[in-house]
UniProtKB/TrEMBL annotation:
Lineage, top ranks: Bacteria, Bacillati, Bacillota, Bacilli, Bacillales
Annotated PROSITE patterns: ABC_TRANSPORTER_1 (PS00211), ABC_TRANSPORTER_2 (PS50893)
One Gene Ontology biological process: L-amino acid transport
Pfam families for the chain: ABC_tran (PF00005)
Protein family according to the UniProt entry: Belongs to the ABC transporter superfamily.
Source organism of the structure: Kyrpidia spormannii
Signal sequence segment: none
Membrane spanning residue stretches: none
Protein name: ABC transporter ATP-binding protein
Key words of the record: Amino-acid transport, ATP-binding, Nucleotide-binding, Transport
GO molecular function, one term: ATP hydrolysis activity
InterPro entries, per the entry: AAA+_ATPase, ABC_transporter-like_ATP-bd, ABC_transporter-like_CS, BCAA_Transport_ATP-bd_LivF, P-loop_NTPase
Length: 237
């Protein structure tokens, strides 16, 4: 579904990605793990059209995405939840979701999609008329995912959904991510929290300084431990 081929690029003169190769097949949840600052977010920005790569290809269902605007990518079914939960803080939960649906009314049933999002995140239904800015961190993350999901994307890219959340909330958000995948959305998940990703992903890639240095077809406890020790510099848990 998605094939990143030898992508290089970064910010101006600063090269961050040094030839990244990665594939996501339809129906999978693929994890992209890596320590701070190795380029995971930069790669998602390239895929979602926010940064133009200096070289390489990003193929989506065989079509090269390079040069296509983020708005058009959204209409093509690619959604990106950036790090830091970009929601409208002075709008209610309902308004945040309706704005997301406005752009795609011609191709989805807005009422159905709203119900789907609220069923996935019952907490958002309880907070339906509350302003986004007054939600807890976990609720804001739920709203950010719900906003991206409402337009019925085929591919959902999530950038560190666990960031800054208490373990119990992380567990709940990740359970929902698995549910989203089971409902048919393909997912590329960027995470530093490898343990949280363990029960959600089908396969993982590990990135170090702008390249993929390892991939696992299965992520069990011992493979997780090895990735943590060898690539993430973590010695336990
Ligand atoms: N707008 C920018 N201009 C210049 N350099 C940037 C910009 N954004 C990020 N960088 C640099 O690019 C490098 C990779 O950052 P990136 O956010 O892609 O890493 P990451 O793997 O997602 O890290 P983290 O897990 O900490 O978010 C870092 O050295 C960062 O300082």
């Amino acid at each position: 579904m998605l094939e990143v081929r030898n992508v290089v690029g970064g910010y101006g003169e600063i090269q961050i990605l040094h030839g990244v190769n990665l594939t996501v097949h339809r129906g999978e949840v693929v994890g992209l793990l890596g320590a701070n600052g190795v380029g995971k977010t930069t790669l998602l920005r390239v895929i979602s059209g926010l940064i133009r790569p200096g070289g390489g290809q990003v193929l989506y269902q065989g079509q090269d995405l390079v040069g296509i605007s983020p708005a058009r990518l959204l209409r093509m079914g690619i959604a990106h939840v950036p790090q830091g939960r970009h929601i409208f803080s002075d709008m209610t939960v309902k308004e945040n979701l309706l704005v997301a649906l406005d752009r795609v009314r011609d191709r989805v049933n807005a009422g159905e999609r709203l119900e789907y999002a609220l069923n996935l995140f019952p907490r958002l239904r309880e907070r339906y008329h509350q302003l986004g800015g007054t939600l807890s961190g976990g609720e804001q993350q739920m709203l950010a995912i719900a906003r991206a999901l409402a337009p019925k994307p085929d591919l959902l890219m999530l950038d560190e959904p666990s960031m800054g959340l208490a373990p119990v909330i992380v567990e709940s958000v990740f359970k929902t991510i698995r549910q989203i995948a089971e409902d048919g959305t393909t997912i590329l998940l960027v995470e530093q929290n490898a343990t949280a990703a363990l029960h959600v992903v089908d396969r993982v890639y590990v990135m170090e300084t702008g390249t993929i240095v390892h991939q696992s077809e299965r992520l069990d406890d011992s493979e997780l431990q090895r990735i943590k020790e060898v690539y993430l510099g973590l010695s336990d848990s």
